[in-house]
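Predict structure. Chain length: 181.
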Amino acid sequence: MHGPMSAAWLLVALCAATGAYCLLRMRSTVEDQRRTAGGEALMGFGMALMAVPAAVLAPPSWTWLLYALVFGAAALRALWAARRGGHHLHHLVGTFAMAYMAVEMAGRPAAHAHHGGGAGTPALTGLLLVYFAVYVLYAGARLVPAASGVPARAGWGDRPELARACRLSMGIGMLAMLLAM
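Prediction complete.
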C-alpha cells in the first residue's frame, strides 16, 4: 500500500503545482496565454483534489456530484469555445473526462471510492486512455527545444514552453487517474 499512497501524493503535488503556475499565467501579457490559463488552473486544482488519497480524506458522496457539476459546466464552456478550434477541443475532452470520473466515483460506495475496479463504461474509459496517451506523446514531442521567438526576458507567465510542460504534466496526471479507475 505504500507505493500507491506515494504515487497519489506525487500526483496531488504535480497537479497542484501545475494549477498554481496556470494561475500565474493568467497575469501574462500574451492574450493566448491568459485565455486558456483559467481553465487549465481549474483542471490542475481539480485533479489535485480528486487525487487526494482516501486514507487521508474520504469525501462524502455529494462531493463527487459537485465535481461532476463543476467539470460538466467547464465542459459546456469548452464546447462553446471549441467553435474556434485549437486547444479548446483538448479542454473539452479533459473536462469531460473529469466529469466522467466524478460521476463514476459518485456511484461507488464510499469505502471503495479510491480503490479502482468497476470503472464505468470500459469502452469510454479505454477511449479516454488512448486519447490521453497519444496527447502525452504529442505534448512531449513539442517540448523538444526549438526557436520560440520569446524574448529572453519574458515573464514567467509568458513562457510557452512552461505552458506546454504544464499541459504535459496534466496529461500524465489524467492518464494516472484513468488507470486508477
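Summary: Residues 2-180 form one domain.
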